[in-house]
Amino acid sequence: MANAPVQRMSQLLAKTLRDDPADAEVLSHKLLVRAGYVRRTAAGIWSWLPLGKKVLANVERIVREEMDAVGAQEVLLPAILPREPYEATGRWEEYGPELFRLQDRRGGDYLLGPTHEEIFTLLVKDQASSYKDLPVILYQIQNKYRDEARPRAGILRGREFLMKDSYSFDTEDEGLAKSYALHREAYQKIFARLGLDYRICAATAGAMGGSKSEEFLAPAEAGEDTFADCPNCDFAANTEAITYELKPVDGSDVPAAEDIPTPDTPTIETLAASLGVPASATLKNLLVKVDGEIVAVGVPGDREVDMDKVEAHFAPAAVELVTETDFAARPDLVRGYVGPRGLEKVTYIADPRVAPGTAWITGANKAGTHTKNVVAGRDFEVGEYVDVVVVQEGDPCPKCGTGLVLDRAIEIGHIFQLGRKYADALKLDVLGQNGKPVRVTMGSYGIGVSRAVAALAEQSADDKGLCWPAEVAPADVHVVAAGKALQTELALDISQKLAAAGVRVLVDDRPGVSPGVKFTDSELIGVPQILVAGRRAADGVVELKDRRTGEREELTVEEAVARLTA
Amino acid sequence: MANAPVQRMSQLLAKTLRDDPADAEVLSHKLLVRAGYVRRTAAGIWSWLPLGKKVLANVERIVREEMDAVGAQEVLLPAILPREPYEATGRWEEYGPELFRLQDRRGGDYLLGPTHEEIFTLLVKDQASSYKDLPVILYQIQNKYRDEARPRAGILRGREFLMKDSYSFDTEDEGLAKSYALHREAYQKIFARLGLDYRICAATAGAMGGSKSEEFLAPAEAGEDTFADCPNCDFAANTEAITYELKPVDGSDVPAAEDIPTPDTPTIETLAASLGVPASATLKNLLVKVDGEIVAVGVPGDREVDMDKVEAHFAPAAVELVTETDFAARPDLVRGYVGPRGLEKVTYIADPRVAPGTAWITGANKAGTHTKNVVAGRDFEVGEYVDVVVVQEGDPCPKCGTGLVLDRAIEIGHIFQLGRKYADALKLDVLGQNGKPVRVTMGSYGIGVSRAVAALAEQSADDKGLCWPAEVAPADVHVVAAGKALQTELALDISQKLAAAGVRVLVDDRPGVSPGVKFTDSELIGVPQILVAGRRAADGVVELKDRRTGEREELTVEEAVARLTA
Known about the structure:
Largest interface: A-B, 60 and 59 residues
Helix content of chain A: 25-40%
Number of helices of chain A: 14
Number of domains of chain A: 3
Oligomer: homodimer
């Protein structure tokens, strides 16, 4: 085995900090800065210091090996991209302010790639002419750019970040399904090797378009996604992707609708309290404007409307909440007392929980009045059923009905069956077996490489600091010279022996730094094994410590070297 | 040895082309496109296809190994950078239109890093507090951005390109000299391993500032630099960096200056022809405006003024040629008859070849009149001597006087002793040994990683195509199945055996492609060794061909595998 490098801390650019940085909110941000892995260069823009770069490179290597193993071909496309292809697919506009746009010296429009569907589509259009040239899976590991409104959480959500993105090209739907399955397997291997705890969750497609899509979510408090896990079956999904099934009930026994005076009850809370009924017995009607037209959204009174779901449903139309001005222009809409019965010139959509046959207490479209026994399908018509409510802990599992458990998670991977959206926009055809052009079907797949580092930090850290899984750690062993010249000499000697056997060593040979500070730093930095040359150095005895368990063992130098090179 | 991958051409994204791309001017551009290594995405913006990415990764690996070997620490800084530090050093303005500038959604100014001196300076300012933290050498391998006026020559001069940039930080000048020497040695090893023919040349510092600087130039017709090589001694320099020594001569015997009528001789050619003297006997006076003030530049009549040198001398002042309007405003300046004698209100600078004591025929500042026997230092004073002429083939070597040979070359590396320019601008001090702050001195060092690929293509190609040195080639062996099922089976079988022994294999298993096309492609692609399973495949006999020499040898399969895995 080749000589591995010995990194001496006396020469390492990595200043450890005792205190959390003032602007840090999440654990990985705090620890990666404190342990000298990363430094902020601008809002959402980060520099990787030597220790951080090593971890990043390890993640990159694992991703590359597993992508190569499924036959994906590595390429490298530019980060600065011309406007035209993104114009052709509509994403130049759709991306909005999240896209970094710039002009060159001739006034030509460019963007910094947020993802590369368009450019890969054009590349394959240039390179493949026949069905024989497909299928093909291409990937790259490259910086991506998104001008986040609120860059936060350190490298967890940066504006420049490292991503593995890949794209599959097939002529048949079955081919796409296979390319998708290959990615799913590769991702499972990658995240297992990284030592990440993760779930594969059904996902919405978001801005990508396309149909089938799953997310790889790493549970962590710092995560920005919420996923629902079924404690009974194998169901797991991003809460955004959970849709409640429409189940009509028999409402024929419900008495006729009847207005009831309900003065001073403009909110669900006041209404429920005044009538002594649970909020779930009431029907809440939220008014929004969709491209200027008023739409009412009906949901059970105890549920929150998820505006992301509403927006996704109407996209690309713009969705806004109604204003005072809108109410003023429509005196028939009585704020606080809107109901679906007798509502005119308003499109009415409702959550599937407002199924045909269900009965509700809801607004009577008259001030201070509600109506009870209002039955969906009998007393009012629902224009369209759309699941728009925020999923709650305890909601029934769509698969088995058991109450769901909700958790925060970090999205570390995402796989999409895009279908022909991009191929249609950019006219990507190849000659089919029958000699006629065939439109190509695509998949798009991403792993947040820099984000995976943050997710690993989040999941593996303890109260002492970082604690890396072996394959991604910046070194295999952290040798600590806890003493004077004798200990330093021994530490460096052991380091050389380990390195000669291919072990990656970080050695703390800093002169004038106390053993206490070195121990604290070694725990903060989080290399899995810590070898201390301390009090018994003169006898050739060292202490081997497991960073995670804290277990210690005294060994002779020979035993320690043998153990660590085994 | 681990299994190496087998890349099957039937699955490879790499369309070879028979014809040169229409927009290609230089050899590497033509061949890298034709052989399927790179594709143009926009002007000066390139995509690396699988074969190209492999070569690029090989270059990257060699650079990384040799930088690590001199103790440099790898980091990764962002490509998108805030304006402020570049404002502080003046480079936000100085870079002019070459800098890609952009704004984020809040209107904050950013740039795409052309080089990272400022950000590294700030990083070390954050990380190092004492002389004990230095010296340190940091490097990164990262995309750089320059909005070239005329992106040309394929990846030789792109607007987004991959570079290894490193920066050294020392407290003492001797430390900087040592960091510089470490880079010089590392670069020599890198370029030797890459198999590049190169010269180390004295260089001007250009926009970087600072003092000592050398370039690593790879001789190639497509190069944009011209360097002078001494056939007698070890002198080599970028012609921009050659300065002629001032050697005063004894001009006391020269008769007094005397006006001579020279009607209709407004150019050196007409003057020399009319008088029957060589152009070298005349003194040419070029007028320029430096920040609006007129400056005359005197050079021997047979020499061209190098405007880059003039601009470098006066930088950051702007230099322009004088216009009709300027002549109209200064009737004392007679176009075609300007001379240094009696010239008023004009700064006069001259090339060292116009040394004190030299005698010239030059303009008399009167229409249709020149003056002969005009002696520098006697009849006119030179305000400042500045070497401003274009170096010519045969100019004397500054070291030994032998006539220089000029060649075109590609700049593949550049090392600078920056000194304290950036540390001064950004106030980078550390605590010195005496407890007082010490200003840090810096070096800056670059290797064009993507450009090195082009330089290698330029230097190693022959009339059949690319021809890579072994360590950077996209594969070790190109196995060609020249025939039907039998040959393909044998080719794939051999490929597996080679791969199992750690040999990187590209195998041409394309069905329905003729042996002739496969041979032509194998020569175009340029893997050093080509193994053909052809006519004698049934006997277990294959042909091994050396791509460079064209030598062929028939071997049994066992012999071939043994040879290639040796």
